Structure formats: structure tokens, C-alpha cells
Amino acid sequence: MKQSITLDYTLPEGCLQPHFEALRRGEALASKCGACGHVAFPARVLCADCGSDALGWVTLPGTARVSCRTGGAEKGVALVRFDGADAMSTVALKNPEIAGETGKLSVPENSEAGLWLLLDTVTAKGDGNV
Amino acid sequence: MLNDVKIAGGAMTPFNRRKDGSSFRDWSRTAVSGALKDASLEPRDIDMLVVASESDFFTLQLNPAALLADECGLFGVAAQRAEGGGASGHVAFHAGVAALAGGMAKRVLVLGVEPSASHLKGADVGALYALSFDAWTDGMTGVDATSLYALSAQMFMQRTGAKHADFAQIAVRNRQNAGLNPYAHLPLDVSIDDVVSSTLVAAPYHRLDCSPLSDGAAALILARAKDLPQNGQTRASVKGLGNSTDRVRLGERSDPGYFAGKREASRRAFSMAGVEVTDIGLAEVYDSYSGAQLQALEALGLVEDVVAAERSGMFAADGAMPVNLSGGLLGQGAPVGATGVAQVIAAALQLEGRYWGLRPAKAARFALVDTHGGIATLNTVSILEAP
Ligand SMILES: [Zn+2]
Fold this sequence. Notes:
The complex is a heterodimer. Chain A contains 1 helix and 8 strands, in the order αββββββββ. In chain A, 35% of the residues are buried. By secondary structure, chain A is mainly beta. Helix content of chain A is 6%, strand content 34%. In chain B, 36% of the residues lie in helices and 19% in strands. In chain B, the strands form 3 sheets. Chain B has a 5-stranded mixed β-sheet with strand order 1-7-4-2-3, sandwiched between helices. Chain B is globular and about 55 Å long. The relative contact order of chain B is 0.20. The structure holds zinc ion. Zinc ion (ZN) binds next to loops of chain A. Chain A: It comes from Hoeflea halophila. Chain A: Pfam families: zf-ChsH2. Chain A: This is Rubredoxin-like zinc ribbon protein.
């Protein structure tokens, strides 16, 4: 038998709504622990380090350095550390054809979920970013 | 802690991509009747059913435990469904042991089933599997399982010096091990060159480094010795269980290349079993990807230097600790809910000296079974003892 279902979800983001709203604007809104100062990006509802729920918001510059990456020219995924964050993040690469080691948080297309990173284009000398 | 819980019998269907028009209900019936026959029991002897199935998206059947109890002739049993991502089958096994240990049941049938291959297109299955991670930050971004495993493997390689050739050797050996397993999905005779020249999916992983999507079912029966024919004296016993979670987001782990949750699950299982690492004579380990087998063996604490041990041949059939003689997920296949159940069956039958596939050069007294969901996010370890 054949069966096809189209499921159209609406997912409330709860306590993390400010984080996801910021992502859709291309802004890196992280959670910061009021007890130990740990900065989490993507944001968390509980501190990953000490478990405290006394979290506030802090805006990061959105720049990141790539630790390792995989995938091909069409699709890329990387583990990166956003400047100001205390842990790494997994991101989808917006321009995986680029071999850059740094990048900036990017507005996702079509309000997609998650973190998208636009890699910086390395200059011919390989010693800077444009 | 555990007193005399036996694996009374087990059976599985072939793991493969079904093209014969049979349904997951058919496979379930085959596995259940096979397990009952193997245990010399009747359906009426079973008082509890635990069904492992990762996702209703695969079966398109909610409340599957009630349906499968009905379809398999286990009328009126207590029934539940257990789930833990890729570890669902092994989690169901633990749930069955817990029900026995807690006096809630006398004879438990654990049934794992999944139509992971034939029901949906591969890309749709991949999109569903991606929801095994933090769906909001990873799965919905299109960050897929292979990419996350690849990133973790890269970190493991950086720390340990493991090379892709080490991973490829595992991809080759597990397929060769599967060659004697009549139920295996991929009993392939491939070379390291074949692995390296297969399509690059996500570096370091090539197509042949990845386990397949499979259809199939596996079932086993648990009971105390006193509740079994001949007191189950020819059957393996359950000695220790351990389960532990790790941080869901890969980036939040202190070393994304180390399976810390598996380390803890293993420690708990050894502690309950009261045995030492050196007592383990063989292992069935969760090799969703070739490199993940090495990462698992490292975290399980079975050896000091896992890369050196791999290169020394320790994990081959004639090595000191044969691993995945069934072929593992890479060779035997991976119908998710059935995977962990089949791993336990393989280990138990090896200990009983009646395994249908490749056997170790030296009979083992204790065997370890390891399964996980996510990327070693939910980890399940069991230690079994020979009769
Ligand atoms: Zn804190």
C-alpha cells in the first residue's frame, strides 16, 4: 500500500525564543550563567557547566574559528568556536566551497533552524580576511 | 545484583532491504516464533512484551507493542515500547531484565523491529536520523549523522593518531566476518582499496565506512533459571548492565572525539557484573561507522591503546578480544530497533557455543555488548556470562 503524510509543525521555542529570534536576524545571542559566567552558544536553558538556571543574555560578535570541518563543496558542516563562547558549536556552512578558517554567523535562508556560518574569503596572501 | 537472569532463547530474521513484499509484522512473527522455539516455550508462557522500535515515522504504527502482541499471539501480556535512538533494542533488553529483577514478570519477550530500508526513501530516513541529535540546533539545519560522526572521528584521529586506513580495515573485517552469517545484510569481500575508492560522504568517511539502512526483526526471551525448561542450564546469563548519557550537543563535550558517556555506561556494567576488563573474551560493539568502532572500544576501556590494539589484530576472530564476529552494523546490518537485540543474541549464542556465524578461536566466558543512540549520546552496555 502507498501512504503519504505531510506534517506541518509549529514548534514554540519556549525559553530559547530570544536566541532563535536573534539567529533569524543573523545575531549571536548567547546565554550567560549568572553563577559561574559560562557562555553558551547556541544558548542553553541550564548552564552546561554548573547546572544553574540563573541565565541571562549576552550578544556575541558572531565571528567564529573553524576547528574541523567535513562534507564536500555542496554541503559542509563544521565544529567551530564562536568568539566569546565557552564551548564549540556545530554549524552548517553557507559557502562550503571556501577553504577559510574563520567566518561569521549568517542569516539562514527561509527561516531555517540552526546555525549557519558564512566563511571568510582568504586573501591571496592567506594572511587576512576580507 | 542480578540473580540468575537467563537469555532463554533468541532468533532473528535476515537483515537486508526487503524486496519480497513481506511486512514488519511478518518479520516480527518470524522472530518471535523463532525465539519461542529456541527457548522451548509457548506463547502462553510469556507474560510481558517489550518492543523496541526507534520511530513511528518508520513503521507508521503508533502503540506498536499492543499491535505486535496481538499479531504474534501474545494475547493479554503486559506490553510496553522502549526507545533510546540507535540503542532502542538494547534499552528494551535492559527494560526486560529490570522487569524480571523487579518481580514484575516471569518470562519477558524482547522484540526489536524496524523497517529502516524499505518504507521510506533514504534521504527521508537520513532527515529523521538527524533528529537524533539536538534537533533544534543540528537536525533541522541539515547537520546529518554522517557529518557529526565524521567531525567526532576527526577529533579522535587528531588525538590518537588513528588513520583512515585503520577505519577502512574495520570496514573490511566486519564485512568479512559477516560472510559466515546467514542473516547478514552485507557479507562483502571488499578490500581497503575498495573502501578508500568508494564515494566520499563526509571526510574521513566513505560510503563503505557507513553502516547500511536495513529491514528486519530480532527477538529474545528473558527468564530466571527456575522458570525455564531444564533450568536454562545451557543458556547464557546476564551479569551486568550500564547506561549513561553524554551531552547531546557534540560541541559541548570537552573532547568531541571521546565517547565519555560510553565510558561511564561501561564502568557501571563492569561494576554490576563484578568482573574485570581482562575477563571479556569477545564483544559486539556499535559500529554505525567504521571509526566509531575504534572510538567505542577506546571508551569501553577494553584496552589501553586502542589504535595499537587494532593494528596488532587483537580484535580479529583469532585475536585476544574478537569484536563483531556477527559483522556488526557494518556487515550484519542495522534495522534500528532490532540492532541491539541481535547484538545480545549474537553474544549469548557465542557464549553458548552455538552461534550460526564466525566463532572466536578461543571460547569466551564473558562477552560485552555495546550499543548507542545519537553520537554515543545514550549508551547501553551489557555483560553476559557463559552457561
Ligand atoms: Zn554556570
